[in-house]
Amino acid sequence: MNIKSPIDIYSPLFEDIALSNILSDGKAVVDLIPSMSPDIILRHYHDQKSSPNFDLQEFVDTHFTKQEDAISTFQSDMSLSCQEHVESLWSHLFRLPDSPVVGSSLLPLKYPYIVPGGRFNEIYYWDSYFTMLGLKVSGRVVLIEHMVNNFADLIANFDHIPNGNRTYYLSRSQPPFFALMVELLASIRGEHIYRKYRDALQTEYHYWTSGGKAVIYNGFKVARYYDEMDTPRTEMYLEDKTTLENIDASFLPTKYRHLRSAAESGWDFSSRWLAIEHDLSSIETCDIIPVDL
After folding, report:
1. CA torsion angle for 275, 263, 24, 104 (degrees, to 10)?
2. Alpha-carbon span 206 to 203, nearest angstrom
3. Average pLDDT for residues 153-175, to the nearest whole number?
4. Which residue among 3, 136, 149, 261 is least enclosed by CB atoms within 10 Å?
5. pLDDT tens-place string over residues 182-195
6. Cβ of 228: how many Cβ atoms within 10 Å?
7. Would you state the pLDDT for residue 102?
8. Dihedral through CA 233, CA 236, CA 237, CA 238, nearest 10?
9. How far apart are CA 197 and CA 182, in angstroms?
10. Which of 185, 194, 159, 183 is closest to 173 using CA atoms?
11. What is the predicted pLDDT for the residue at 119?
């Protein structure tokens, strides 16, 4: 399946937007929703960018719409208990199945799901397990099953569950909590659930025990966090370049992979991955066998 991320679709426009910092959040750049076909946008950019009066911000505003915060209109009711507050959030964080949009970074999901909120309008892999624990307390079992089905579909389509359902997350996963999700659902629905998702569980296990993720250490095959790509994260393009701006060019691919792999771990970022505490450029994620795995 040939899925392209924004940097592949919109280059060199993507790089110019990301490096210009006209959108202060790198994720806002990759989550822009095109107002017309990417081919037309790129043609307009090629024709207009050399104009003396060209304004990149105006171009972006004309050719894209910005993803709104997931719960930008939500107001907390301080009189509610903690549980009542969580219950009131579900409807704001609930998303119906997605419709594909050409040129968008969103990977459409077939079943309803819950997003984290704020700037995050997509699911995140291991976060979703803890969401499901809350959904169980709320008695929303059907929604738990919908979300497990979405993850099983992602495994069927991509042989793994990406960090989140965005094209720029496809090169990495997150801590493999799918088995815990299946176990949670089986505790409610019954043991036939294990059979239903057996193939997906086996596929994910193979993903985590093969390729760049698998290494031999003291005669044992062990797993590590390992992103397939060695370039700046698309959603943090300017930030990653800035973090490593003083690193020798020959080490940059390795360092970018370390950054990406720390994001796969979910501990992005923690001193556990650093050779020098507080110095993110000293990151060495792929050189560490994490107890998590």
Report:
1. 150
2. 5
3. 97
4. 3
5. 999 999 999 999 99
6. 14
7. 93
8. -150
9. 7
10. 159
11. 85
pLDDT score, position 246: 95
> Are the C-beta atoms of 222 and 214 separated by less than 8 Å?
yes
Whose tokens are 């360092």? That residue is 255
Give 60's contacts (C-beta < 8 A, 6+ positions apart). 17, 22, 23, 32
| Most confident of the ranges 26-30, 78-82, 147-151 | 147-151
Please tell me the distance from the alpha carbon of residue 68 to that of residue 82, in angstroms, as a whole number: 26
- Cα distance between residue 210 and residue 240, in whole Å: 27
What's CA 281's distance to the chain center, in Å?
22
Distances (CA, A) of 2 to 13, 137, 168, 193: 21, 39, 13, 31
Helices 198-208, 178-189: axis angle to 10 degrees equals 160
Per-residue pLDDT at 156: 98
Say if residues 226 and 213 touch (Cβ distance below 8 Å): yes
> In the structure encoding, which two tokens stand for residue 252, read together?
């940059």
Containing 17, the helix (H) or strand (E) segment is helix 13-20
- Residue pair 41/10 in contact (Cβ under 8 Å)? The answer is yes
Residue keyed to tokens 């304004």: 55
Amino acid at 46: H
Instruction: Return d(Cα 20, Cα 56) in angstroms, integer.
Output: 9
**54 touches 48 (CB < 8 A):** yes
Query: Is the per-residue pLDDT at 74 higher than 90?
Result: no
Partners of 124 in the β-ladder: 164
Say whether 246 sits in a helix, a strand or coil: coil
Going by C-alpha positions, the residue among 136, 91, 82 that lies closest to residue 114 is 91
Length of the chain: 293
Q: For residue 71, what pLDDT is reported? A: 67
